[in-house]
Amino acid sequence: CWADAAGDVSRGLAASQVPSLDQCKESFEKFLLTINVPSQMANPDLLSCVGSASESCCRAIETFVGSSSPIYGCSCHAELHDEAWDMVYELAPVVAPSSNLAYIPVARPVVMQRIKECGIPTPKNGMCPDLTEPSSGASAASVVTVDPAEAAQGSSLVVPNLNRTAAMMEYSAAYERTLEGFDEYGWYNPCQKLEGAKYCLASLQAPGNYMQVRYGVCVPEDAEEDAIADAIADTEPEHYAKHPPRVDCSVMEKTPLGAGGIATAAVLGSILLAVAVATAANLVLPRAEEAGALRRTADCFDFCRNWHQLMAKPQMGRELDLTTLNGFRAVSMFWVILGHTLSYIVWIGGIAYPGRLINPNNMNMVLHEWFISIYAGAFFAVDTFFFLSGLLVAFIVSREISKAKLRAKTVKGELGFWALYAVNRFARLLPTFAAVLFFFWQIAPSLSSSPLWKLNWDQHSQDCQKYWWSDLFFMNNFYPVGNPADGLAPTTCVGGTWYLAVDTQLYLFVAPVVIAAWHHGLYLKPLLRVRRAVGASISAALLAISVALACYTTIQRDVWLQYFGEGNFYYYYVKPWIRAPPYVLGLLLGLVFHEISKPEGKGREAMRRLKERTPSWAWMGLFCVSVATLSLLVFPIATYYNTDDPIPPVTTTHSAGWSRDATIAYNTVKFLVWGLALCALVLPTCLGKLKLVTELLGGHIWAPLAKLTYGAYLIHMLYPQALLTSTDATTAYYHTSHTLGMWLVFTVGSYFWAAILHLVVEAPFGNLQKLAFTAARSNPKRSSVAQDPDGVKRKKTDVQQKLEDIASPRTGRSISECTPRNVDSTKNNNNGNNLV
What we know:
Elements: H1 2-6, H2 21-33, H3 37-41, H4 44-47, H5 55-65, H6 78-95, H7 103-117, H8 148-153, H9 166-171, H10 175-179, H11 188-193, E1 197-205, E2 212-220, H12 225-233, H13 237-242, E3 246-248, H14 259-284, H15 293-299, H16 303-310, H17 324-352, H18 354-357, H19 360-367, H20 372-376, H21 379-404, H22 411-443, H23 451-472, H24 498-509, H25 511-520, H26 531-556, H27 569-573, H28 576-596, H29 602-613, H30 616-634, H31 637-641, H32 660-686, H33 691-697, H34 702-707, H35 709-716, H36 719-726, H37 736-777, E4 785-787, E5 793-795, H38 798-805
Antiparallel strand pairs: 1-2, 1-3, 4-5
Helix pairs in contact: 2-6, 14-22, 16-37, 17-21, 17-33, 17-35, 17-36, 17-37, 21-28, 21-32, 22-23, 22-37, 23-36, 24-28, 25-26, 25-28, 26-28, 26-32, 28-29, 28-32, 30-32, 35-37
């Protein structure tokens, strides 16, 4: 690229071609103020410099400091380099008010390295004249002509003398790769097990490079850090005198458990003790016919009882079968983990090898393959969660409302109902969420050690220190605030829990409006007789508003597609008004399911006619259309990345395989279309019209996996980090078998720990929740007079009284118990409604 970008670099510059230092300072300040920063942030040529000094990178560098630039030759003033970056830091807020100044010290070594590699004259590549001599005396003889490759690499290699054995050399990094500007860690775990050896990590700026790199060495256990640094410095004394290396031999030491870790361990230990005591008590002590409050509380923690609930076989309903939703939930969770498997390998590998990993050639190995759609389209699995959540909320809350209609309606009673509805959400989610958050914040950093472990978990602890409350109270999709320029937001404590925030916000602010409109006409008497139409109209309005906002946001913020989250993460990807369509459509289908599952009435008759009069080919056609629609949303994603540009379009719409209009259209309607396709897919399966699909997705194997969805979702965000940062760092070049193997490891591990979490925390506290809510709702003086919506009081029937006496399905029934077949069953209560 040197020949293309900067001409024949071997000839160098004459002193007369280098402006004076004062001229350069003045020119640089004027030039800096003319740069269009937002445009350059989307410049694919400039962004490619992150990976390597490719042709496109050198083309971008040439426009800034090359022969056509007003500051060409100023790079020969070594003293100007520091002043120029100080000027960038000072003027950045003026040129780009939304600039993140924290990026500047990160970008500096990369930029300086690429300037040198692209053949721009600098004092370090031998293309600059000796500026210590007077300009008048400058001549061709004063120009140093050195081959840049030779200047960067050196004519010979001198390896640090560290008195290592052959085994220690085997477990150490290759020093020549460090000199080329690559991080090399070696094999620290085998080194730690080698008798008489220890692992140390050096940070150094290699000769001919501007970037700091890491160099891992396995050395004798009596080697001192200063001695190792001196041995490295002795390989190039003149260079390292200005840039002394730093050595840390404590990187393999575990972080001690702090006060927060001790407190967290004490709380979790107390819960484990309660589980052990309760389990032993129920195994040893005889059970009385009428258990007291203490015994009922202890039963909540009984491991055996919770295990049987987890593994309980679901029963398929005769008319309306919701057990197929178990399969949808489990398969969606598998898909989420698959998408995050590749992204986590990339991100964790990016910590170890940033330059090599973001190399366009490496990224294009997978981004240009058709199956990238399967990885990149995994965000749709979260929209399936939204759809199922809305469906279950509407169906179960509607059953609660139907039972409440058997009693006289009062303002106090309705306020109490919705207050309990809101409290139930937090009581259901917070214990499990808090256990995961505080465990990985306060305890996990002390469980292992490695160079990457410390780097990753130190940062994780800092993020938790600042944002734990934002995660825990479901606000992390609004705070911390994202960067207005690119929509990137700081990482919070538990990554991926923006989904819980969005789901909770839709649960609290959207679901009550739609459900209250459908059942009560928004509590307005004139709307009571047309309440179904009101509920449907409000849902349609919400869908229209969501689509309009998605379109506006996509255009206003130039939202692109990218694999590591949507193009504008903060303003588009995690906002409830953007992700609402699947949830709202799920609410509507749940309300319809409730209507048609009633023992009597128009809904029941409509379901009978629907099932009897609709031919089988129509159901199969609906199924095929829905599957085809879902596929058309997922698989074309590969064509977005399939371009000939050297850098994949992961940070901009420029050079993407789609036009900007196509990107806008896709980002506008994709969530709505996904929700509609799910409606068409779920309707026939729950009505039992597609026997094969119903039996596959409603099988016993899916029931426990579905109950573990919540815990698996929380853990799968952190378990891969722990696994990847505790093992020896190897470069993550893509290979399908390797990636699928890691996906299997992450999936099994996440579900294993989710099962432990369920049995120790989620199920016991869910049982306590049911116990407390049942006690709060019990009223022995309940009236046996029902009041219909029209205000007419009628005597309850025996069936109505029996329905009212059943324990609330909202407080703990599994999906299998939300079927007409199980309406009279009070057995097999469990805490399986993870998404509700």
